[in-house]
Structure formats: structure tokens, C-alpha cells
Amino acid sequence: MSLLLRNALVLDVVSGDYTEGDLRCEDGRVVEAGRGLTAPDARVVDVNGAVVVPGLIDAHVHVTACTADLGALTSLAPSYVAAHSARIMGQMLDRGFTTVRDASGADYGLADAQAEGLIRGPRLLFCGKALSQTGGHGDVRGRGTDRHDDHPCCAGLGRVADGVDAVRVAARDELRKGAHHIKVMASGGVSSPTDRIDSTQYSMDELRAIVDEAGAANRYVAAHAYTARAVNRALEAGVRSVEHGNLLDDRSVELFLRHDAYLVPTLVTYWALKEEGRSFGLPESSWHKVDAVLGAGVEALERAARGGVRLVFGTDLLGGMHRHQNQEFRLRREVQEPLDVIRAATVNAADLVGMAGQIGTLAVGAHADLLVLDGDPLRDIGVLAEPKHIRHVVQAGRVISSR
User: Fold this and answer.
1) Cα separation, 305 vs 2, whole angstroms
2) pLDDT tens-digit readout, 226-256
3) Is 6 in the same domain as 27?
4) Residue 289: active-site member
């Protein structure tokens, strides 16, 4: 399959410069860039000077989260959840996201189905089930429930494991199933029923054991953490990315830099949960917990950006709120320049997931994932915040969505 884009204004997200010219794609890769390119057997699309950017990367999604009531997921038939996931993934692709990192819930079945063309959607980097201590953010049992519903065939987002030996087994099991990374719950969270947001979770020995297992398999650990205390413990244990981090402090910034780690803020989900969460299944008790982190996210983003922390784009939306995915661009613009927000959703995210040079760029040799836009996102980030401005979505060198 060959594709030739003519008369494009191609954004180099590293330099921030535009280059006028053509792009030739072959067998799913960018193979040539320049002026006056020819390809006799290629499909030719003349974009007439439109801006072309790399396909977007969302590094914190839950494609199986068809409801905001995460405790209810385990009672749903996996086949039913998979059908919802296919719809969610297809809509993400139409919004311009050609790669996503699932932060718990998705498995090799969904990743294989997407790779084989059985479902439409972004390239899916999965971790399987997130690791949680008893009573942690991945333990969805209510206070009166003793039975765990975290069997591998269940559709939940987490699995409970306590103790160094048990977390090693759990990490090895997710890696056995092909996990691209390991997710660990290192603090309390909004959607979990029995923990406090300001709690720390897992001992340092357990966290280090999980990091060791991931490292042994040449993989890495992403840690859910809100407070500075939880963030700092996770960084000291060696995690590669911290998810959320709304209540981090200056010490956190120092540790991010020292350990060469990434921060993945998810601002849009708190706004969405507060406005719509209950309509899409968020329990009342969880809705009241949103306030603890709602106002702090922008401040944490500003502190991290000012300190030079490597920032990556993430959204963490649930249920019917997935449709707000692109709104994260507008929220981050309150703190960052448009180019920095775009880098978070392209080259920075590619670095985090170990795919630098392959995604998040339009350099020769990269996957031919790109967007043709009606407008200049460097002048107005709303061009990416509103999917109506995406004229074409190209994935693996094929035009798969057009407006």
C-alpha cells in the first residue's frame, strides 16, 4: 500500500518548524520526504498546504472502561466489554489518536485484534491488570465483600497481590501474557471504594520487587500516585512514569529529574468526573473524592513544567466521558505553549513507551501515522482540542478517517 501526500506543511515537533513538501509512505512507513516526489502506483492526496502532524499518542487510557463504575466491570461478560472496547477504540482513532497506552484493563486479545485489523483503533500498548494491595486502588470490593473478582477472564482493571513473593508472581504473570509495561497502584484513588486518596500503597520492598521484575524483562513500571509522599516513594523505587501526580511537590520534581522519569498528568478526567461522572456510573462516594485532586492538577503541571520534568499526554477518561479526550489539549494550554503540549502527545510519549523514532514523528523510517489538519495548532491549540478540525487520519500509510 503506497500513499503520496502532496503540498503538505509538515510539522517537525522537535524543532517546531514547518517544512513545505510531499510525504511518500510505503508498507506502513514514511519512506521519503521532499518536493516534487513521485510514486506511480500510489494513492495521491493533495492536501493543498494543510498542516500535517504525527498521529497523536494518549499514554493513559482505559479502553475497557465502558462505565465509570469500575467495580461493576468484573460482573460484565468479557465479550460485552470487548464490544464496547472496539467502539471506544474506533472513536479514539477518529479523534486522531493512532497509538494509546492502556493503563490497565486491556489485554493481548484486544491488541492482537487491532493489529490484525479485526477492529478499528489505535495501536494498543497494554499492561493487563494493574497490581494493587488489598484495599488499594485496584481492589474494587466494597467493605462487606470478601471474594476477589480478579480472575484473568474477568473484565476488571486490577488484580490484588500482597507481599514481595506475590507481587513478583503477579508481575511475571502479566509479563508472560505480553504486557508492554506493568502498572502498580502506589496511592489511593478516586474510583476505589475503601481507600483514601492520601494513602500510600505497597511497601518499598514490594515496589522495588515489581520494578525489578519489569526491568528483568526489559519492560518498565507506571505508577498511579497522587500525593507527594506516594509520588516520591514510587520514584525512589525506580518507576519510569508517574500517572496523575496532582499533589506532587518540589522534592518530586528533583526525583523526576534524578531518575529520568516521566509525569503523565490527566487533567481532563477530573473535570469530566465532577461534571458527568455520576451520569456514567461513578458511585456517589467516589464522586465526593474528586474534589481532593480537581483543583491541584494544573498547579502540579505548572510546577513540573517549570522544573523541567518530561511531560506526557494522558486522559484517563471512563465510560461515556471518553468523548472529551481532545479537551486535554485545551486544559494544558493554561500552563504550556502549544508546541510543548503537542510534544507531550508525540515525541515525549514515544520516548516513554520505548518507541522513539517509530511513532510521534514523521521522520523517514517512522510508522506512517499522521493527521491532516484544518488550521495551525501552534497558533491555536483548539485545532487539536476539537476533532472537527482533523481532515484526515492516516494510520500505517492508509487514510482511515476523513471529514
Assistant:
1) 40
2) 999 999 999 999 999 999 999 999 999 999 9
3) yes
4) no
Average of pLDDT values for 32-56?
Answer: 95
* Number of other residues whose CB lies within 10 A of the CB of residue 355: 19
The pairing of beta strand 17-26 with beta strand 29-34: antiparallel
* Strand boundaries in 335-376, DSSP class E: 370-373
- CA gap 252, 163 in Å, rounded: 26
As to burial, measured by CB atoms within 10 angstroms (0-12 exposed, 13-18 middle, 19+ buried), residue 130 is buried
Instruction: Tell me the three state secondary structure of residue 157.
Output: coil
| CA-closest candidate to residue 54, choices 367, 365, 375 | 367
Domain region containing 375: 2-54+361-402
CATH of the domain at 368: 2.30.40.10
Cα–Cα distance measured from residue 225 to residue 195, given in angstroms and rounded to the nearest whole number: 13
Residues in the chain: 403
> From CA 105, how far away is CA 219, in angstroms rounded?
18
What residues are paired with 223 via a beta bridge? 184, 242
End residue of a domain, out of 325, 353, 382: 325
* Same-domain pairing of 28 and 62: no
Catalytic residue among 22, 139, 195, 316: 316
Q: Is 379 exposed, middle or buried (CB count within 10 Å of its CB: 0-12, 13-18, 19+)?
A: exposed
| CB-based contacts of 203, cutoff 8 Å, min separation 6 | none
Rounded to whole angstroms, the Cα distance separating 378 from 376 reads 5
Answer yes or no: is 129 within a domain. Answer: yes
- Is the domain of 20 the same as that of 126? no
Q: Choose the catalytic residue: 183, 195, 289, 369.
A: 183
Q: What is the pLDDT of residues 290-299, one digit of tens each?
A: 887 778 999 9
Tally of structural domains, the chain: 2
CATH of the domain at 224: 3.20.20.140
Cross-strand pairs, 30: 25
pTM (2 decimals)? 0.95
Confirm whether 388 is a catalytic residue. Answer: no
